[in-house]
Specification:
By secondary structure, the chain is of the alpha/beta class. The chain is built from 17 helices and eleven strands. The protein has a five-stranded mixed β-sheet. Strand 1, helix 2 (about 65-75) and strand 2 form a beta-alpha-beta unit. Helix 16 (about 435-455) runs antiparallel to helix 17 (about 460-475).
Length: about 475
Amino acid sequence: MTRDGRRTGHRRGRAAVALGCLLALASAACTGGSGDTVEPDGTDAPTGPVVVASGLDVTGSGSVRQQLIEEWNRRHAGSRDRQAELVELPGAADQQRSQLLGALQSGSARYDVVNLDITWIPEFAEAGLISPLPAEESGTAGDTDFIRQVHATTVWKGRTYALPFNTDVGLLYYRPDLLTAADIEADKQPTADWTWDQLYSSVKTLGLNPVRRDERAGWTTQLKQYEGLTVNTVEAFADAGVQLTDSEGRYSSDPGQLKKGLDSLLDRVGRGRVQPAALTSDETASLTDFAEGRAVFLRHWPYAYGALEGLMDPADYAVNRLPGKAVLGGQNLAVTADSPRAENARALIAFLTSRESERCLLDAGFAATRASVYGSTPKPCWPRVAAALRPTGDPARAEDTGEGTPKGQGTEARAAYVRLLGAALTQAVQRPRTPYYGAFTQELQSHVHALLAAERPDTAEAAAQLDRALRDVFAGR
C-alpha cells in the first residue's frame, strides 16, 4: 500500500470514529468508557493496560491465551503501562467479526490489539482499522521461523499487518477399532499420502449406507450453513484445481470451473458416505458423532486431538493428514490503527508469538505458527504457563519436551501427531483473500447449502447462479 493509500485508510478510520460519536451524542462512545481518554494533541501520555480483544478459547485448555497474558504481566510487574488485559468476545466467528468491526469503526471499545481470523486481515487493512507493522517487527526481517504459508496470511498488498498467533489446518481423524473390526488391516488404514479414493474404498468395505442420523456412516464433517461449510467447499474446490481469486482478491473463476468444484464436493459428501447429520453439523456436533461411533472418519481441526482425550479411549482414535488439500485457519495479532499504546502493543505481540509462547499454544491444543516448534529441539513453554495448563495433580514428566504436553495417547503418539501437524501446515491452502470476505462466505454458504439439500442437485445451474453472485461480491457490489 502506498503512503497516500495509508493516509486515505486512516482518514476513513477517523471519519468512522467521528460519525460514531455524532450518532451516540456522547463523548463516552469514543473512549470505550475506560476513563483514560487521550487528548488529540498528545499532551496526555497514554496510560492503562494494553487491551487485547480475542474470540473464545476453543481448546478447553484453561485458556492458554489468558495464561500467556498473565506471564507477560508478571514480567512487567513494575510497569502499569505495560500491563495487558484480555477481552474475550462471545459468539461464532461471524459474530466476533461484526463486533470488532463495529467497535473499531465507532471507537466504542478501547482495543489496542485484535486477534483476527486470518480471512479478515484484508478487510481490516483496507478499512484502515489496523496498522502495518514496521519492517523490523513484521516477521520478514531476520525472522524466518514462521511457517511460510502461515505468515503469508498476515500480508496484504505487500505490507505485513499482523503476526501469526495460532494457526489451524484440516486433519483426518479415524477409528482404528472400527476399521479393524471390519477386517481392514493396519497397513490399509490412513497414511500421510492417503487419497479420497482410498477413503471411499474403505467406506465401501465397511458396507455403510446411512439413511438416518443415528446410523453409522463412513465419515462426517461440518456442512451446517456457517464457516465450516465454506472451509469444506474450498477444500473440495482446491482438490479439483479451482481457484476462486488471484492474489489481489480479484475473481478468477467461471461457471465451468465452479461446476468442477461443486461436483467434487457432491462426490465427497454423497449419500451413502457421509453422516446424514453432517448437513446440520458444526465442529461440536461432528466431533460428538465421531466419538460416539456414528462415523468412522472425521474431518476436523487440531484442537480435536486434545478434545478426544476426554471422550474416548486413546486406543480407539488416531489422526493423519487430510486426503487432498486442507484449508488453513487460525488467528493473527494486529495493532489497532488508533491505539495510543501502539509501541507496547507491538512488544506484547512479539512476546505472544515468541518461540516459547508458540510452544505453550501447541501444548494447549492449538497449532503453533513457528516451524521450530515442530522441530527436534523446540524451546519449552514458559514454566509457569506450562504448570497452569497441567491438570491438578498431574506432575511433569522428564520425558516430556513441553511440561503441558497432553499425554492421552502417550509420548510416542504425541510426537508423531506433532510431526504430521507441522507437515500438514506446510501444504495447506488459503481461502480467498479479499476485503469482501464476509459477503463472499455468506453467498457461498447460501448457494452450496441449497445444493446439498436438494433432492436432485443440478451443479450446472448452481454453478451459473454462484458465478453471477461471486462476480458481484468480489467487485464490491
